[in-house]
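Please, structure for the following, as tokens.
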Amino acid sequence: MKRTEISTLGEFGLIDHITEGIEFVNKETVKGVGDDAAVLDMNGTRTLVTTDLLLEGIHFDLTYVPLKHLGYKSAVVNFSDIYAMNGTP
């Protein structure tokens, strides 16, 4: 198997590569992987589910970032995904 560097795929290419062939088995899933958040329909109520990964040395440095600022950033990046899907956190 030929090795492909992640940097050549890009974010959306990597998502496509990882999720290729995945089919949704739950009828509640309206929108799955590949958007800012997953959309689930739970008894007529739509729920957005999102996660983000923040890595020290890439997204923050604890040498100069206070923990309260890191907590704020952790919340805001997820709120941003919810707003991008026209939701309310």
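Residues 64 and 70 are 10 Å apart (CA to CA). Residues 26-84 form one domain.
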